Amino acid sequence: MRDFYFYTSRPMTAKDCFDSLNNEIKNIRGTNNLDEVQISVGGKWRSYLWFYNERFEDYMNFYESEEEFEADKDLIPIKEPYINFFEAYRSVDAKRFIAVLMRIYPELYVEVNEMDYWHGTAQEYLDTEFDY
Amino acid sequence: MFNRAKNSRDPLVFDVFCTIESKFPGSVLFVNEEKMDCFLGGPRELDIITKKCIIEVKSGKKVRKGLRQFEGQKRYAESRGKIHIVYAPKMPQIARNTYGKMGITIVSNYTDLINMMKEHEK
User: DSSP state, B32?
Assistant: First the structure.
């Protein structure tokens, strides 16, 4: 599956996302406690949305230097973002999720952390053709 | 299993599958298999499950904290008598070291992956 990171200016909540996604997409499942992790959609090509709401400072120990850390932060146009984790096989499924989520989080910024690294606004992701 | 790996839409998972099968034929039990378990925190797809290992494949170069994901997979693996390995060829060394201190095994090349598996896939 492809790893995506979603950046927002406020925490993403499982309940808000679940309610919106459930109105638009079939086969959405949430955990029993919707304030915890994971919304997933079943079927052959599954997607998973995890609610970690991490901050950049959580990743400091994973960088060689503070300069490298700051340079990575500067790639993301949201100041002090909340970071959540999404997995999907296909861009068409990612686009379905993103199209719904950007109505709740209009500032949503997307990073695709795979061999074909990509980052941009939610709308830019929707407007881009991907080969997966 | 070969077709499932080939059709996985994740070329690196297929590559890892082929490498493992070439060294340990018949050892791969599942590819992109969804499991549900309290340790995993809900239904979760695991990239490659062999007789003795659970292998998570990460092709990205950016480090975003997947620790909760890895910890859950590791606890699940151990509950099944398996070891947990993350194959992350592009992950920076410092990140691998940091995860290592947290008890997560990360390898960045096939030699290390196979050597780690050799101790267990017998």
Answer: E
B33 touches chain A (CB under 8 A): no
Whole-angstrom Cα distance, residue B119 to residue B41?
Answer: 29
Of all residues in chain B, the one with the smallest CA distance to A43 is: B34
Single pTM value for the model = 0.90
Domains of chain B: 2-118 (3.40.1350)
What are A64's two structure tokens? 């060689």
Secondary structure (3-state) at A10: coil
DSSP structural state of residue A14: H
Domain boundaries, chain A: 2-127
CATH entry 1.10.3210 includes domain A2-127: no
Whose structure tokens read 């795979």? A114
Residue of A63, A49, A57, A70 lying closest to A3 (CA atoms) = A49
Q: In this predicted complex, what is the ipTM?
A: 0.85
Residue A53, chain B, CB below 8 Å: the answer is: no
Is pLDDT of B66 > 80? no
B63 contacts in A (CB within 8 Å)?
A: 59, 62-63
Q: Please name the helix (run of DSSP H) or strand (run of DSSP E) that holds residue A84, with its range, or none.
A: strand A82-88
Measure the CA–CA gap between B54 and B69, rounded to whole angstroms. 13
* Chain A contact probe: residue of B65, B71, B91, B94 with most A CBs at under 10 A: B65
Nearest-CB residue to A5 (from B41, B61, B64) = B64
Res. A23: pLDDT tops 60: yes
- Say whether B109 sits in a helix, a strand or coil: coil
A91-104 helix and A14-24 helix, angle to the nearest 10 degrees: 120
